[in-house]
Amino acid sequence: MALKERLQELRDRGLADISRSENLTRINEIRVQLLGKKGPITEALRGLRELSAEERPQVGSFANQIRDELATAIEERRNELEAASRAAQLNAEAIDVTLPGTPVAQGQPHVIQRIIDQLEDMFIGMGYQVVDGPEVEDDHHNFEMMNLPKDHPARDMQDTFYLTPELLMRTHTSPNQARAMENHDFNKGPLKMVSPGRVYRRDTDDATHSHQFHQVEGLVVDKHVTMGDLKGTLELVAANLFGDEFDVRLRPSYFPFTEPSVEADITCFNCMGKGCAVCKYTGWIEVLGAGMVHPNVLQMAGVDPSIYGGFAFGLGPDRFAMLKYGVTDIRNFYLNDTRFLTQFYQRG
Ligand code: FA5
């Protein structure tokens, strides 16, 4: 067969194969077979040598034309197949946006954290600053600067987890009083701070005691601070957390770092003061310790007690949460049982 006819036949067969090809692998095979170095077109072009000088350019250009025609057809078919494959993939991966979603459980702050947040907001609104302090505290700040020297009998009131003879897990947030006074520049104005955090005691756990619980410390130091300021502030705390119908009663008490010292009771949430089993028939529930800052505590923190005075309080948000929500066992707050914890999410 003459070279020209052979080329023509190659083209017809090639075009038929290309249009029949059904996937990208096949079209690649065809391309290699037809247009590759060992393919029939290259082979045919080699045969040009045997032609006469007149025929050679004519058949040569025809061969090139066929090669281009086949290359274009391959390219077009490849584009078609690629588009079809993309369309099939998109179709297979289609998402039905009308299907109902899988609900994701939403996290919420712990109920005790919410009490702390509420207190912080209230105090920030009254111009207090919120300060933090270390949970691993030194004996010096936790006890000595709180007017509790070594061997002071009142240290027994707070049974302590010691890490070394000088380092301990803080037993209350009161060391932050000392730290705040040490850091405060009284030339710039009074010190008003609250300090929330975790505290630790070797208490035996029961319904109202946990070995790890929370406190919110409060401290105001200025030139004319009175016991009336303390009572008014504690009444605001009670009103903010529990509403106006609750009263605050201050009872004389003893803390080495305050003089005079008081403990504050709030009207029993259960009987509203009438007397019931929850409040042991007193009508009141004890929620915090407080008092006027002891002159020794001021002095040790570098504050002159002949010029400045202050009040301080340490309240237990765990107990506040128990009161607010009628929780009868403090240990529930620490068991991480979501059935217990989620019941507070909808409440105010
Ligand atoms: C103190 O810790 C003093 N630092 C409070 C204070 C600060 C007094 C500033 C004066 C001036 P007390 O040990 O009473 O005091 O604890 C204060 C509050 O923490 C208690 O009223 C109670 O609400 C809470 N609390 C005490 N022990 C526990 C416990 N084991 N579990 C849960 N709450 C507790």
TrEMBL record:
Swiss-Prot/TrEMBL catalytic activity: tRNA(Phe) + L-phenylalanine + ATP = L-phenylalanyl-tRNA(Phe) + AMP + diphosphate + H(+)
InterPro entries: aa-tRNA-synth_II, aa-tRNA-synth_II/BPL/LPL, Phe-tRNA-synth_IIc_asu, Phe-tRNA_ligase_II_N, Phe_tRNA_ligase_alpha1_bac, Phenylalanyl-tRNA_Synthase, tRNA-bd_arm
A Pfam family of this chain: tRNA-synt_2d
Keywords, sorted A to Z: Aminoacyl-tRNA synthetase, ATP-binding, Coiled coil, Cytoplasm, Ligase, Magnesium, Metal-binding, Nucleotide-binding, Protein biosynthesis
Cofactor note: Binds 2 magnesium ions per tetramer.
Domain Aminoacyl-transfer RNA synthetases class-II family profile stretches: 111-323
Protein name stated in the entry: Phenylalanine--tRNA ligase alpha subunit
Biological source species: Furfurilactobacillus curtus
Organism classification: Bacteria, Bacillati, Bacillota, Bacilli, Lactobacillales
